[in-house]
Structures are given as C-alpha cells and as structure tokens.
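Exercise 7. Predict the structure of Cytokinin riboside 5'-monophosphate phosphoribohydrolase from Linum tenue.
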Amino acid sequence: MEAETSNASNVAKFKTIAVFCGSSVGKGDCYKNAAVELAQEMVTRRFNLVYGGGSIGLMGVVSQIVHQGGCNVLGLNKYIYGLTQIIGTTTGHVKPVIDMHQRKTKMMRESDCFIALPGGYGTLEELFEVISWAQLGVHVKPVNSLFIPSLCDVIFFYVFHHKKKKNYAGGFA
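Solution. The predicted structure, encoded as tokens:
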C-alpha cells in the first residue's frame, strides 16, 4: 500500500511531460496508435505537453490531441529557413530556441518527467541526453520510453541488459 501511495503522490506532482518522438509516423500503425494512446492519457490526467515543436508525424499526433483536449502545449522550435515545410506549424504556444541544446535544456526545465516514443536519431539523442543528465545529477526527473517494436530495441536491450548484469565499469555500457 505504501508503494501505491508513493506512486500516486509522484503522479500528482506531474503537471508537464516532455515527449520526445519522431516527425514521421513510422511504417506501422503501432507507432501512431501508441502516440494517440499516450496523448489521450495525458488529456485524461490533465498533463501539459512540452515538445520539439513539429506538427507532423508522431509530434503532430501527440501535440494536436493534447491541445484539442484543452491542455497546454509548448513547442520549442529552432528556426531554420525552410523548416516549416518539414515540421509544419507548431500546435499551441511556440518559443523559439537558438539551437538544439537550448531546446533540450528548456524541455528539461519546463517538464516534470520525460517520455520517449519511437523516432529517429534526434529522438535517441534527446533521450540519451536526459538519461545522462540524470546520471550526472543535473535533474532527478523520471525518464521513460514506450517500447514499441523498432530498430531502437537493439540499443535499449544492450544498454539495459548490461546495466542489469553490471557488465560495465564506471557507468559505461
């Protein structure tokens, strides 16, 4: 019962979730379905969203559902000439950032936890950066990934398998 109370109090502290995900929906319904399910759960629990600012792909799916559900959406967008053709128009409030590092830093400051959905190299880079920051004590916020069949599974299996088996020295896998 104590663990349930602790988990409930942790969830109650969450107001804003940073979601890392791709600007594509992927090649299978499972990716979009997971994004829809996450976004609907965020609306049900009245969680706000901070994300990379894209309006297409999984970023678009999550941001549009959360915004339409009446929750706050903050898109942190780096302006690059012609990028609007790639990422579309940001849903919700937009804050421009100077570079990708500033974007991740602001996402960390604006959120209470992190969730990664499938994406490309940028998504992986964002996820590993916040994991590294947690390891270094920069933040103590929960970091989670929704494991959906993807190429990233191999990377996550390697990292978590070796950490579990303690086949690493000084924090290196």
